[in-house]
Amino acid sequence: MSGYLFDTPKIQSIPVKGEAAEYPINRIFCVGRNYAAHAAEMGGEVDREAPWYFIKSPSAYVASHATVPYPPGTANFHYEMELALGLGAPVFRADAAEASAAIYGYGCALDMTRRDRQQDGKDHRRPWDLGKDIENGAVMAPLTRASDWQPMGQRIHLAVNGEIKQDASLEDMVWTVAEIVSHLSGFYHLIPGDVIMTGTPAGVGPVVAGDKITGGIDGLDPIALTLSDPE
Ligand SMILES: CC(=O)CC(=O)C(=O)O
């Protein structure tokens, strides 16, 4: 082969606290309904048998503190504040201890959602791609290495224009990060660069052009996103 027919998109990467090099994104997995109160506000229940997932394209990534246009194809665009983790070692069919040891770091994330398109998918028993896989819809703040921070029931919160909308504890997660990585490794050969967003607590809601979203998890770099007018 003598090269590609056209230029390929650059690899998306997340800054890491205290590191010059960035964390290159391979895949973005997202856990659905990992907080009972959010499952209830969506009219559902958590699945206690096993976690379940949807996927966002790496090209959906945007760095925290960006200003991005209100996306096309929705009249009900929602924020979802989440804890994200990035893997730093390969794992396949890992137990919880191996899974935990493979986590490179953690960061705040926003799983931006076209709620109307997601509902459409649910109503017609179709996939959620248009609801979840959104350009600029996988927002991530810089990662903190796992050696410097571990999830231990820290506060997770989000505000829109300064008004608190989501406020919970990481202890409320149905599936722990080790359980999630272990379970997902039963389906994929997970590798460094694979990112997992671990689900959102209750209090999701709509945003409009001009809104500023800010969020945080105690001990991690905060996250922000501002919405400008649609293109
Ligand atoms: C019901 C959802 O929006 C799924 C999801 O993104 C989450 O629970 O987090």
Task: Furnish the topology, listing elements before pairings.
Blueprint: E1 13-14, E2 23-24, E3 27-31, H1 36-41, E4 53-56, E5 61-63, E6 66-69, E7 77-79, E8 81-87, H2 96-101, E9 103-111, E10 113-114, H3 115-123, H4 129-132, E11 138-140, E12 144-145, E13 155-160, E14 163-169, H5 177-184, E15 194-197, E16 205-206, E17 212-217, E18 223-228
Parallel strand pairs: 3-15, 5-11, 6-18
Antiparallel strand pairs: 1-2, 3-4, 7-10, 7-16, 8-9, 8-15, 9-11, 9-12, 13-14, 13-17, 17-18
The structure holds the ligand CC(=O)CC(=O)C(=O)O.
| Beta-strand content | 25-35%
Count of runs of 4 or more consecutive helical residues: 5
User: Which series of helices and strands comes N to C?
Assistant: EEEHEEEEEHEEHHEEEEHEEEE
Associated small molecules: the ligand CC(=O)CC(=O)C(=O)O
Question: What is the approximate shape?
Answer: globular
Radius of gyration: 17 Å
Number of strands: 18
pLDDT averaged residue by residue: 97
> The biggest beta sheet, please?
8 strands, mixed
Low-pLDDT parts are: none
CATH topology: Fumarylacetoacetate hydrolase, domain 2
Structural class category: alpha+beta
Q: What is the terminal-to-terminal distance?
A: 38 Å
CATH class: Alpha Beta
- The CATH superfamily is known as Fumarylacetoacetase-like, C-terminal domain
CATH architecture: Alpha-Beta Complex
What's the number of structural domains?
Answer: 1
